[in-house]
Amino acid sequence: MTSETSTEVVVEGRAPTPPDGAPAAAPSAGALLVVLVGTFITVLDFFIANVAVPAIKADLGASAAQAQMFVVGYGVAFTAGLITGGRLGDLFGRRRMFTLGMVLFMLASAACSLAPTATVLVVARIAQGAAAALMVPQVLGIIGTVYTGAARDRAFNAYGLVIGIAGVFGQFIGGALITVDIAGLSWRTIFLINVPLCLVSLAFVGRTIPESRGEGGTRLDLVGALLVTASLGIIVFALLEGQESGWPLWVWEALAGAAVLLAVTVWHLRRRAAADRGPLIEPALFKGRVFSVGLAATVVYFLAMGSFFFVLALYLQLGRGLSPLASGSVFLALGAGYFGASMVSARKAASVTARRVAVGPLTLAIGYAAVALTADRLDTTGHVLWLLPALLVAGLGMGLTTGPLTNLVLGAAAPEHAASASGLLNTAQEGGAAVGVAIAGAVFFPALADAGGSAGAYPHAFAVTLVPLIALGLLASALVLAAPGRTARR
Question: Which GO terms describe its biological process (predicted)?
C-alpha cells in the first residue's frame, strides 16, 4: 500500500529487517490463524443466537422483549464500541487489546452458558458484544502489520472468508449443537464452545503475534469515544427496536437526537484534528474517494447480506416447518458458493480491480432474484431443495464481495490511519448487518400480516422482502464502480 504521507508504525518483537539483497523471512501463518479464530467466534455469536431464541425462551421463561435483547444487546454493544476499540489498540498495543478482548469474551461466553435467568443472559450478551468490540478491530491492524504484499492480500481475503463462513454456517452450527444436546446443555453449548477456542488461541498469541501500535497520538479521545459510541448505539438500537415496537414516537425522537450527536461528533473530530490532538476518527480518511465510496458500498452490501440470513431462517423454520438443523442445512448451499468464490478471489487478490469487485454484489442481486422467484413459485408445497441452485448463486456473490471489498477499503487508507480505518470498516460491516435486519423486518412482517399471517403467507412475504435486498445489491455494485482504480496492495 502506498501513501504520499511519511508514516511509521511501532512494532515490537519482530525479527530485524534483513540486509539489502537478503530474502525477507516469510511471516508465520500462526498469527493469521489466531486472529481469525477471534474473528470467527465474534461473528458467529452475532448470528448463532437467532436459531437458539425459541429454546432460550422456553428454558428461561423469557419475555418477547428479553428474547429480542439476546440478539440486539450483543449487536448494539459490538457495533457501538468498534471504533473506540480500534483506537485503543492503536494507542496501547493491538496484541495487548486483542488478548484482553479475547479473555473478556471468554468470560462473558461462560457467563452466558451459565445464566440462570433471562436478565443475567441479556447482561452477559451485552458484555460479550463489548468484549468483541475490543478484540475484532485489532485483527485488521495486526494483519496489516505482520503481512506485506501478496501475503497481505491473501490474509485479507482469508479474513473475508471467515466472516462469511461464520455468518453462513452460523445457523447450521447452532442448529446442530442444539439438536445434539451435549450433556443435556441444549442452547448453552452455543456459548460454552467459545471457552476452549479462546483458551487454545490465547496460548499462542504471545508466540505468533508481534506487538504493534500506531504513531500519531498518546491519549484516547474520550469525548470522541463517548460521542461516537452514543451516536451509533442509539441509531442501531432505535432501528432494531422501532420495527419490533411499531415505530412509536420515541424511536423518531431518538434518531433525531442521534443525528444531532453525529453533527456534534463531526465538529469535535475536525476541531481535534486541526489542533493535531489525535482524534478518535481521522477526518482525512474521507478525503480519499476510494475509501469513502468503498466504505459506503460496505454498509450497503452488509445491509443486504445480514438481513438475508434473518428472513431466510424465518421462511424456512416458520413458513416451511423445518427444524433448526434442517434449516441450517439449507444454508450449506450458500456456504458452498461462498467458499468456492472466496478461493477464486484469494488467487486473484494481487490483481483485483474495482470493476471486478463490482461483479460480486451484482451476482448477489441475481441470486436473490432467483431465490425470490423460486420461493414464490414453490409456495408451501414445492420441495425446498429447488432453492439450492439460487442460494448457490447468492453465496457466490457473497464470496466475490466480502474479501475483495475489505481489501479495497483498507488499501485506500494511509498506514498512519490504520486504526481508524479498521474501526470504521468493522462498524460498517456489523452495523450494516444489524440495521439490515431492522429494514428486512419492516418489510417482512407487514407483508406477512397483509397476507393473513399463516404459514402459507410466508413464501409471499419472503419474496416481497427480497425486492429491497436486490436493490441494495445493485446499489453496492454501482458504488464500487464509482471507486475507480486498482484495489491491489503492493
Answer: response to antibiotic
